[in-house]
Amino acid sequence: MDEELVREEPRRQKGISSFWWVGLVIATVVGWMIWQIPAVQDIWMGWGYELEGKVAETVEGLELTEGAERILKASRPLVEESESFNEHCNSHDADISLLGCYADGKIYVYEVTVAEIAAANKVTMAHELLHAIWDRLGFFEKGEVEGWLEEIYASRREWFDGELETYSDEERLEEIYARAGTKLRDLPEGLERHYAKFFRNRARVVDYYEEYEAPFLALKMEMETLAETIIRVKMEIDVEKVAYEGEVADLDMRIREFNSCLEVAGCIASVEEAWGRGTTLNQEKEALELTRDRLNEKIMENNERIDNYREMQERIGRLNRAMNSNLVTVDEV
């Protein structure tokens, strides 16, 4: 009998394609995790955006790090004239000078065109960039930064309160973050290291701030000094004027008495006496006329100071108006 040939039935292989969805899920999760990385989002948001024109001119000199420039491009900054800026930043209050905003993930800067204070554009760009950076800070890093901000707020509370009077408590630390980074030179070492992640030379940003503030400070100091002089001289004039008017009244009375005496026989003993008294009265009159002339000259000089003071007021007003996107110039009326 032939040996029966027993064949083993081949086993069916499980296709790896039955688990395709596992790989898809993993890829999706990994992709989602990667997308949550702010730097990745910034690269995507800034893809194809180039710093050109007014924006490039404004950013020049800020000495941004690669990370800061990436965030800036992701924020697609614009430097705008009043109409577009006011629409983007919802700025329609003529009493508030808004120079920039960070809205819906984008940076908008109002273009200050007066050369004397044009550095404000650079400081505003840096300020709004710090708002964008704040928006990206992680939980622990933000907590550390907030500690430093509270420290500098406590040391310069009066200055900050003046800067933050229009901001709510919720906005306070973020505004301190943006203002301290662009306006203050001396900061806690840890906070300085933090800002160094975004500015290679943060002191240069402060230089720009002081550059555009300088005309305002110089005018204010000059006006304060001039006002003190005007007030002091006016007080002197008031005193001298009262004294002069009193001397004039006294001299007028004595001249009338002298003239009346000339008409009365025996009132004056001799011609010599009449001549002497008349000469003395004339000399006093001439002296008072000189006093009057000096007093008028002093009044004119002080009036010139007042005119200069008003010119300075107008000049500082023009600078302030140049920084307010809601004011209409005379040519536009």
Q: Could you explain the architecture of this structure?
A:
The chain has a three-stranded mixed beta sheet with strand order 1-3-2. The protein is built from twelve helices and three strands; from the N terminus they run H-H-H-H-E-H-E-E-H-H-H-H-H-H-H. Helix 6 crosses helix 9 (169-183) and helix 11 runs antiparallel to helix 12. The protein is mainly α and 333 residues long. It is rod-shaped. The model is unreliable at 1-7, 19-36 and 328-333 (pLDDT under 50).
Largest sheet: 3 strands, mixed
Whole-number mean pLDDT: 84
Strand residue percentage: under 5%
| Count of helix runs | 12
List the helices and strands and how they pair.
Layout: H1 20-35, H2 38-45, H3 53-59, H4 66-74, E1 78-80, H5 82-89, E2 100-103, E3 106-110, H6 120-134, H7 139-155, H8 157-163, H9 169-183, H10 189-195, H11 202-262, H12 271-322
Parallel strand pairs: 1-3
Antiparallel strand pairs: 2-3
Helix pairs in contact: 2-4, 6-9, 6-11, 7-9, 11-12
